[in-house]
Design a protein that fits this description.
By secondary structure, the chain is an alpha/beta fold. It has two domains: about 130 residues, Rossmann fold (3-Layer(aba) Sandwich); about 70 residues, Helicase, Ruva Protein, domain 3, CATH 1.10.8. It has eight helices and five strands; from the N terminus they run αβαββαβαβαααα.
Amino acid sequence: MKQIPLAIGPEPIFTFENFLPGANSAALAHVQALKPGNVGEAPVFLWGPPGSGKTHVLRALAQRWQDGGAQVGWYDAETALPWELPSQPSLLILDDCERFDAGQQHAAFALFVEAATDGLAVVATGSAPPTDLQLREDLRTRLGWGPTFALQPLSELETRAALRREADRRGILLGDEVMDYLLTRFARDLKHLMRLLDRLDEFALAAKRAVTVPLLRQMLADEGLVG
């Protein structure tokens, strides 16, 4: 289990305010309506391809609950076993459930049982609906008990807006030519594009140069990628 640290400095900040919902307004509204202390809430499952915003929504939710003094248990494929809930938990989060190995699936089911007993809110994510995930049957059934929302990736215009907003927050002057280069040579997976922007920011600061297409090409060449 790991608590979500407060985001500071240039690190990405995941909030509901800086999440572009696009076609995902219904899912966002449902998750935002979850409140600590509402015993008996059905588990919520969010699914969609990489870059559709699943982890952003989870981090925003966890941050909001932690800011309110609630204890949040966050578990994903990188969380080492054994999995134990924090003391006085309020929210259980299971991210990218399709990546859980056999031991983690067993642990996730045990946490689900404990959450139901203690009246915890549960929000989980995956790459497909629960019925289509290659998981043990009891865990798959639990994940599909409550509302299930399919998250859609952002359109190109919305992706540009998200990148522009993050660049502005970092103080990066992101020209249209750099934006075009990113969107024509890489998958429009917002998570991947944000990581590229993060690396580009660090590279530009180290080189003491403005962010340009030649600088981006140099960074990619240095990383052994095609520029």
